[in-house]
Every structure is written in structure tokens, then in C-alpha cells.
Queue: 2 jobs
Job 1
Amino acid sequence: MNAPALPADAARQNARPADKRPVRALAGLLPFVRPYRGRIALAGLFLVLAALTTLAFPVALKALIDHGLVAGDPGQRVMALRGYFLALFAVGAALGLFSAARFYAVTWLGERITADLRNAVYRHVLRQSPEFFETTRTGEVLSRLTTDTTLVQTVVGSSLSMGLRNTVMGIGALIALVVTNPYVMTQVLGILVLVVLPSLYFGRRVRRLSRASQDRVADSSAIAAEVLAAIPVVQGFVQEPREAARFDAATESAFEAARRRTTVRAVLVAFIISATFGALLWGLYQGTQAVIRGDISAGHLGQTVVFVIILVSSVAVLSEVYGDLLRAAGATERLMELLAAQSPVADPPQPRALPATRGGSAVRLHEVSFHYPSRPQTAALSHFDLEVRPGETVALVGPSGAGKSTVLQLLLRFYDTERGLVAVDGVPVREAALADLRARIGIVPQDSTVFSTSALENIRYGRPEASDEEVFAAARAAFADDFIRALPEGYGTYLGERGVRLSGGQRQRISIARAMLKNPPLLLLDEATSALDAESERAVQAALETAMKDRTTIVIAHRLATVLRADRIVVLEAGGIVDQGTHAELVARGGLYARLAAMQFQTDIAGARSLT
């Protein structure tokens, strides 16, 4: 059953029923823990040895008091003291050794499991269709990849180990106290059971508030990611104070959620420690009365005191660990939601192989109807039919919202149609492997993407195995070679995040060079020259005409001057084809294209006259 991608609010609503299962959400980490069973067993061994060594200390102390201090002969007492102190030192040395080994083993596991979890979530998100990002903000995903995985790391790499160690120590100390003082400690144990019941109530509230706190942090991360990606717009409209105030409100909301969580958790810790300490003091008081009556020795009482201290400290640590587990449970839920999100676009069980091509790919869309998931009431395409022959150049024109970009997205299978057939080279795109389908398609989007690496690697992104010479050739074909070589370090120049060191036209030529390097049989150009000046546009148009040879090309353009040489111009309006033909044929027939051409060319002529 497919789990839809969850936006922040929906995720919170869906998480509420799970609050009745405080730490069960951590079971989602089991697939990441299983590969390291051997190391976990080794860490568990060191953990148990460290706990048992700690429990051996009170036994050694009892022997020291009863036999080293109470011995009658002074000479025997000195020799006994030496032996017992050496025994205590041996216990301390063993405790240090086992604790160090436990710390290393557990910390390694925490780092390794968290890295695997972070990688798995990131890989899974990369495979999601654009539909996922229509409902899930990028900042929300980043928050889960960073903040939530850090919480899980804290638990797996530290808190869980401390909790298990103190559980062993606490149970051992409790058993020792019950064995040595069965009557009194049975009463204490009954009191401790009463302590657990309110703790479960407080614990449930801590977990619910922890989840809410993480959601508030994710909200602020989402705001920051969105605004930082649009800094020029924010500063251009002088909206820095407004955006700062919006972020302040989000962080204050996160602080308030964290404060409520901390308050409840502090009450939980105070209650557990106070109640446990009071119950154990009662048992200690009964022990002192037993010494006075002569029922037990002074060493026995000393042993009891240390066991009580171990038990109280173990309970105190466990109360802290329990709070950490509750926070990690909320974080794990959020991560598991991402991993459970299934993309509606996936490889078929038995993909069909795409046939070899020569001279470009054949494209067919037949009776296609499609609605975007975020706009279910408006049809992006309706009963749409289009065939493109191998090697043909087809231009898609029409007003905004006519469905031009939707055609490209369906060919790339970013979405699946509700009705109709989309096929490339005779194979329905639903029946082809996604990697095979997209490997034979090159795309130059309207908004050029430049990664924060060198110019060489940005172009090589189109074909990672390409040689430097092939990259240079693609750059020359896209008329990008000259400006790249003029950069401070040429092709090795770091272009900055989102290519901030380049102009819009330069970024577009990098994108065109990347598509040319891929050398696909089907080329999709979505306003490929929209960011170029007139001189650059003429140069790139010439390069694109060369690139279009021996391949199928589908061009989207609002500037009709860029599609005059297309073999066929297809006019779209309201999700359907209203006319098609050459530029001359369409102008002669009148209609929508003729009106668009008349308005645009008159505007271009008027603009040129104004410049003269």
C-alpha cells in the first residue's frame, strides 16, 4: 500500500494515534541495526562486564570493612588492608578498561547506524517524483536529515548504552538488596512499582511534546531554506525585516514547544528521583536499625549503602535516558514517514527494453488526460494527441498554462497520466525502466541549474564518464568555452551555490553544454534561450541547430522567433492542440498563433525602433 508524502501538518496529525505506543517507534531502526549484530554483541559484552564490575565494588568494600578494619591483630589488619585495597584497585582498573571499550564500541555503532539512516533517507527522497515535493517542503526534509538523525545518534550512540548499563546495574543492585534484606526491600520494591505508573503518564506527554518540538524546528528550517534560496528577491523588495520577523516567530514557537517539553520532562525526572530516593532511604533506615540490633555487620551496612547509591543513581540516569528515548521515538517516526513515502512513479516489475535508435526517437502521446496532484480540478492536458517522427523538430507554443511543459514532464515520466498513452520509440513509458527512459532524453530547462562545483564538473554532469576534451567540445558547441576560459581558474573555477558567479545567460549555456555532452536521441528544450541576450541567443541558436541534427527535438518557446525553423509548430491552448503546421501556414490560417505572432513581432519591432 502506497504511503503518500506527508506535509508538516498532515504528518503531525497522522502521528497523534501513535502516541499511545511510547517507544515502539524505535523499532523502525531495526533494519539499520541488524547488519551490525556482531559489533552489538561485543558492545553488549563490554557493557555487561562494566556493570558487573561496578556491582563487585560493594562486595569488595564489605570485605574491606569486615575483615580489613575489624581484624583484631594490627599486623594482620595491615596485610588485610593491602590485599583488599589491591582488590578494589583491580575492580577500578577493570571498570575503566571495560567502560572505555564499551564507549568506543557503542559510539562507533551510533555514528555508523546514523550515517546509514541518513544515507537511506536521502537516497529514498531522491527517488521521489515531483508530486512528493508539491506537498513536502525542502526545509522539512533537511530538518529530518539533520536534526532528527542527530537525536537518533544521541540515543543509539550514548543514551541507549547508558540506559542498558544502568538497567543491569540497577537490577543487580536491587537483587542484591532484596537478597541481603528481603523483608525491607520487598516493601521498597512495592513502593517503586507505584512510582512507575505516574512515570508512564508523564512519559507519554514528553513524547508528544517532543514530536511537536521537532515539527516546530522543521518549520523554522523550511522558512530559512526557502528565504535563503531567494535572497536577491527578498533584498530587492526590501523584505529583510519581514522575513526576519517571520523566522523569529517560527523560532519562538519552537522555543515555546521545547520549553513545554522540558518542563514536563523536568517534573518527570524530579518525581522519579525524589520518590525513588525516599523509598530507598526507608530501606537504608531499616538497615541501620538492623546493625544496631546486631542482625547484620557494619560491612553489610556499608555494602547496602553502596548498593543503594548504585540503585538510586541508576534510576536517575534511566529517567534521563527515558526522556531521550521519547524524543528519539518522535524523531524516528518522522524519519520513518519519509522512508514509507512511496513514489507513484516507479519501475515496472519487468521493464521492457527500449529499441536502438538512429536519427532520433519517435514520440507518441495518444488521448492523454492529466491533472497535477496539487490542482485536481484543472486539467493540464485533456484528450491530447501528438506524434513526433524520428529526427523531427517540433515546437510547442501557446499561452501560459496551455500544457507545454506538462508534455515534457510526461515524456520524462515525472508523472503518470490518468488516461491515455505516452510512448517513446514504441514503448509505453510506464513499461520502460526509468533509468533507460531518461538516459535517452536530454533536457535544457528554463531555470538553469548550476551546482556548487567547477565549470568542468557542471558540464560533465550530463555524462560523468566523459573526458575533458569531450567536455571542452560540448562547451564550444554551446558557445560557453570563451567565458569559461576567462574565469579566474578556467574550467576549474568554482561557480558558487546555484551558480551565483555567473550571469543568467552563462548559466543557461552551461546547461545547454551539459545536454549536448549527453548526446541523447531525444532533446527537450524548455525556453532554452530565454535568459540569453540577442547576440548570445543567435550564437546558441546556431549551436542548437547543429545539436538538433540526427535527433528528435521538442522545443517550448514563448518567443516565437526561436521556433521559426522548426519542422512543425504545434499550438496549444487549455490542455489541447488547436492548430499545427509551419510558421507560414499558421500565419496564413489566422487563429491563435497568428494573433500571438502579430503581437510579439510588433512588440519586437517597436522595441527595436525605440532603441534607434
Note: Confidence is low (pLDDT under 50) at residues 1-22, 603-612.
Job 2
Amino acid sequence: MEKYFNKAIIGNGNILACLDEKAELIRLYYPYIDYFQNIDTYSLGFVYPNGDHVEWFKYAFLVNQYYDGNIIYTKLKMNDVDILIRDYALIDKNILVRKIKFNQPLSLMVYSKVNSTPDKLVSGMCVGNSLIQYAPDFYMTTTSNHKIIKSQINNVRDNVDRADLKLEDYIGMSDDSAVLYEESKEITLYIALESELKKSFAQIEFLKKQNEEELYSDVKKYWREFLEDHLNYYIENKEFTNREIDIIERTILMYALLTNKSTGAVLASPDVDERFSKCGRYGYCWPRDALFINEAMMELGMEEDVNKFYSIWAEKTQLSNGLFEQRYYSNGELAPSWGVQIDETASMVIGISKLSNKKDYFRIVEKAVVGMINFLNENFISKPCYDLWEERKDSHLYSTGSIYYALEMGRDVLKDFPEYNHLICEIDILQPKILEAIKNEFVKDNMFVRSKFNSETDISLLGAVTPFNVVNYDDQVAINTLNKIENDLKLPNGGYLRYANDGYMGGNAWIISSLWLALYYIEAGNFDKARELYNWVTMHQDDKGFLAEQIDRNSDKPAWIVGLSWSHALYIIVGKKLH
């Protein structure tokens, strides 16, 4: 069965764990927050005293699931058993903590199947109160201060439902294992990740000496102070509603989990659909998304991570021709991609131009400017490349507009460096030619069109006004385009499609479409309309404060990816402008 939906995430910037609505651990990333995904199945269950089968948590009734900071609580009920699970990650160690409480003494069963490939065989070993599953450079330890009374590390699936575990040896070749702990009303599991066996044993010894309540208290204090610092930075004594605060707080806490501590890169979202059955996956870093995410992070007081992104991540990822590829892992390694999108490079230059220390990155900007100039065709529009939705290869308004504005911003960064005077002159010559080309190639019937060979209405047409400043909001072409967007893309539920005839995931309203429109209306001084769109998004958060990629056109519920960094970024940007 495919695992599509993450209902909660925990982590610390080095590891990332995803849970479903019953607190089943469905994804666990190490040694980076986006790879490798090490878990196939990690299920918890209980066995009654003198019982002979396992009652798995995943079949229980969900009472409630809620956050306190980046600590997630899940309340379940099965028959006469009440279950409370508290999940979090230690801040400075690669360790997840899972505190499980029952309303009566029960034995906890842990079934763990780790992802395995022919080149990365996984084995298991049971030592003391710990189960260690391992592959080259990867050791995952499940341990507790409670005693293991049964265990099995080979052919587990045949016996685990009956709690009939049979230990034949302490070590063996298997990608799935199970352990049964002694009866108790309360048990703490620790899931520790390491690259060496000796370090795993050191983690076990460390955990033997710990008091879980003290660990919990330290983690809770850390997230409370982290949240207060960044929330106060953003709000600045301005008034926000409780529902707005819910999204702002979740954005702050989510970005902390989705930011690579070493590089400052932020994931688009924790991944789903690893087998590409519905989409191209999301657990990567796109330079385009980074333009908006980094602006939002600056508004939230996360400038240190933003500077790290441009000084470390961008330095590593920029190609010798000055361009940036479509998408990358958070550590800067190239991710699976399918073609150049020139707005990715333009977004990097525009993002740098917004920094107070933008001059520090002049070498990145200089190379990117040269790369973008070389990407213009003989008619001064973008050469064919994929559009921002990654679906069509053509010469696009959005692509060409991004070059136009990025060259202007690049000029601003480079103007104080005499050695680049020749480049400044070239930009000055090119910009009016690009502007004229945009009017010639991408205006039809006094409205903007999406591409050279495609005229369908698209929310990205607003990019000509914001963020690329090709024309002002009151330009008649922009006004006509806006009216067509309002006519063609608005759905009965009040949301907006990305573009006409969008069929992705059924063709739903996208959060970023509403917020993009809000940015236009803010530019135009129509704050009432912008506030209406912002409020619509606010009312469509999920029960934990996450914003989705889409809102289902029929059910009006959050749909597909929940916890999309781009959606959260535009919400922060728009919210700041409206308060």
C-alpha cells in the first residue's frame, strides 16, 4: 500500500520523521532530512496479559492528535484500552523519543521493517533491551529501559500477529524484526540513528542514564523559546486573529524541521509517493520555492539560515555556466530532475538582491547573470524550457519575465564593482529589448498569454506584475489579464485553479493561487480584496495549522500535500503586508 499522507512531522534539522493519524511511523530520514527514507513499516501494538495476539494501534479509534511545539500527542482507544503517545526528537542528538501510556498494564509489541535493496541489505540483532537494525553506514536502534521478553529477527511476519516470537539467535539476516516488552502501564521507546555500531552502543549507554521526563522538559522548553522568539519578531505588536496565529506558529515550527541545519536549504515538503505513482515527489529543494521561502524566513527572523543557504547551498549547487538545475537535495546534491527551468536561476538572483548583505554574493550573481543572458534567444525571450509547473516545454512569459527582473536585480548587486561595468552596460542594453519582446510575444488581445504557443489562462501570468515588475498593476494589459483570471480560474468554493483545465489531482484550488492574487491586489491598493483572499486561506488550514497545496473542489478540505512550504511562505509574506 502506498503511503501518501503525512499527518505530523517531528525532527531536529538533522533527522526527520513522519507519522500518520494513528502515530504510526511511516517515514524516517537519516543522515539528511530528505534522504535516505529508511522505514518500510514501524508498527506498535499491545498484548493483553496472558494474551496470544497483537492489537495494533493502526486499527484503534483516533480520539485526538495535536501538537505542543514540535512535540506531537496522539490519543487512541481500542476496546477497553486508552492509549496516549508522545513523540518528539531530541534537539542535539539523532534520537526519537516515543512515550506510550496505557490505562492498564500491557505488553508493547514493536514491529520494524527497514527499507532494503539488493545493494543495501538490512540485518538485525537483539542485544539486551535493544533491537538494532543495520545496513552499511546505517544503524537504527530501538531501545527502552523496559525488558524485552520476546524477540525475533527472521521470518517475523508469519508470527508477529500472534505474538509468537521465537528467538533463535541474537543476530540474523532480515529486514524486519519484532520485540515484545514486559507488561507496564507506561513505557518509553528510543529510536536512535547512527553510522557505526560502536556509536549505536554508546547511544544505548547514554539513554540508560536518562530520565525521559527531563528530556521532554528540555525539548519542550527549547521549542517554546524558539517559537516565542520568531513569533514576536514577526508580529511586532500587530494584531492577528487566533486562527492566523495558528498558521504562523506552525510555519515557524515546520520550517525548523524542514531546514537542513548545515546548508540552510528548506524542503518543499516532507516527501510522499516515493514510487512516483501520482507525482514527481516533493522532498527536495527548488531554487524557485526558495525565493519565497527565504523571504518568509527573513520576515520570521530566520536570517541566519537564509544566509547559510546562499553562502553554502548556492555556492555548491551553481553550475559552471552560471545556471541552477531544477531541484536538489537539501545538502546540495542534484536530485532527480527532468529539464532546465530558467526561472530557478533568476529566483536565486532575486533572492540574493533582497538581502542586507547582498554584495557578499556578487560572484554567484555575476555567473547567474551571464547564464541568463546566454539563455535569451535571438528575439530576446527565454529559450524553450519547462514552465514553473514543470509540465510544458516552451518559451514562457514567466520564464522571460523572471530573466527581465533578475537582470535588473543583478545589476543592483554588481553596480559597485568596477570590473563588471561591461556586464552592467550589457544589461542596460538588453532590458528594454526584453521588455519590448515580452509585449510582442506574450500579449494577445491586450492580455498576457502563458507561452509562445499556449494561451490558456494561468495564475502565473500575475508574475509579470508580482514578483517580476514587468508592468505595473494599473497597466491595462495587467488589468485585462486579472479579469480573465478571475473569470476563468475561480471555483465555487472561493479558491482558484493554477490554470484553466488543470487536471492534477482532480483539478483543485491551490493555496498559492489565492495568495498570489492577494499580492496583486495589495500592489493595487485593494486591501479589502486581498484580505478576503487571505481570510479564505486562513479558514482552510488543517487541524494542526498546516496549509495544504490544494483545497478539494468538492469537499472543500485540504488536499494532497499538507504542509507545503511554498503555501506557508506566501501566507507569511501576504500576512505581513496586510497587518
Note: The mean pLDDT is 95.
